[in-house]
Design a protein that fits this description.
It holds the Pfam family Glycos_transf_4. By secondary structure, the chain is mostly helical. It has one domain. It has a two-stranded antiparallel sheet.
Length: 335
């Protein structure tokens, strides 16, 4: 049985937002001279900035675990391991392989609790697919956390939309509201001017919860269709995946930090952090509107439109790549 909160949803969202903001503020006062993200040629910021502000988001999400029913303990355990690995990396950088192993460990409980499409894939492949999904989204949110407000805004929109589509009072709806509230509480520290970064603790917590929310919402009676979270996360999925494939094709070390994502290239060519955040938010809001329209459509139509949406995203990414070439490849600057 799921523990139903005694307070109304709007009050819980308000309290969760305040908690996220307060924890981030307390951490900022400690970290602003001790735990700094320093500028270098692979980052977009120009001044040393405190990192680790996602602690407040992690706290909110852990507090929401009791509302998830039988998978709540698995979610809390996995989140603690995954976000904990990120927090340790914020304080003292971990080797990439060690961090990946901890992410893989943290993904296990959620994959076992909520396999991906077990009716189609079977129990073993369903667990394996869920495990890979969690690891992938943790890293995607980590890769895409490089511009003010971007990662938190995308998580906020994903959580709010999933809460709406999952239905009031469902475990997925409560988790979606917690995700949205945690991200909302952090944003004043990061947008429009960044006084505090999410850090790996924040990006890991967001990516982990996006994956867990998608998996939880596809379980049981009233489960959502898989195309829906695919649409809602398409902005990050497309930019991260296409950039990764491009780097693999050039045989680059994909685990190293870089400035080749489309959002990074746009900022390097003069776009503001706020405009980039707004553009990605507009894409996700359009995807959510499309998803709402597709809810009553036959499955084949919904999947066809989703694939067409993803293809249009690939075309937009290609056009954006021409407008904002990779660092070091712009002939206008190299001439």
């Amino acid at each position: 049985m799921t523990a139903v909160p005694a307070l109304p949803a709007w009050l819980l969202v308000l309290l969760a937002t305040v908690l996220s903001t307060a924890v981030a503020g307390a951490w900022w006062r400690h970290a602003r001279e001790r735990v700094l993200d320093l500028p270098d040629d692979r980052r977009l910021h120009q001044v040393p900035t405190a990192r680790g502000g996602g602690l407040g988001i992690a706290a909110v999400l852990l507090a929401a675990a009791p509302w998830l029913g039988s998978g709540g303990v698995a979610f809390a355990l996995g989140l603690a391991v995954t976000a904990g690995a990120g927090f340790y990396d914020d304080l003292r950088p971990l080797p990439p392989l060690a961090k990946l192993l901890l992410q893989a460990l943290g993904a296990v409980p959620v994959a076992l609790a909520w396999p991906l499409l077990p009716g189609l894939l079977g129990p073993v492949l369903g667990v394996a697919a869920a495990w890979l999904l969690v690891i992938a989204l943790v890293n995607i949110w980590n890769f895409m956390d490089g511009s003010n407000g971007l990662a938190a805004t995308q998580a906020l929109l994903f959580g709010a939309a999933m809460a709406l589509f999952a239905g009031a009072g469902t475990p997925a709806a409560w988790l979606g509201l917690a995700l949205a509230a945690g991200a909302l509480g952090f944003l004043p520290w990061n947008l429009p001017r960044a006084r505090l970064f999410l850090g790996d603790v924040g990006s890991h917590a967001l990516g982990f919860t996006v994956a867990a929310l998608a998996l939880r919402a596809m379980q049981g009676e009233g489960a959502i269709a898989p195309w829906l979270p695919l649409l809602l996360a398409s902005a990050f999925l497309l930019d991260a995946s296409l950039t990764l494939l491009s780097r693999l094709a050039r045989r680059e070390r994909v685990w190293q930090a870089h400035r080749e994502h489309l959002y990074q290239r746009a900022i390097l060519h003069g776009a503001s952090h706020g405009r980039v955040c707004l553009a990605y938010a507009a894409w996700t809001l359009a995807a959510a509107s499309l998803a709402a329209w597709l809810l009553a459509a036959p499955s084949a139509v919904a999947w066809g439109v989703t694939l067409a949406w993803l293809f249009s995203g690939i075309m937009c990414h290609a056009l954006g790549g021409r407008r904002w070439p990779r660092p070091g490849t712009d002939p206008r600057k190299d001439a």
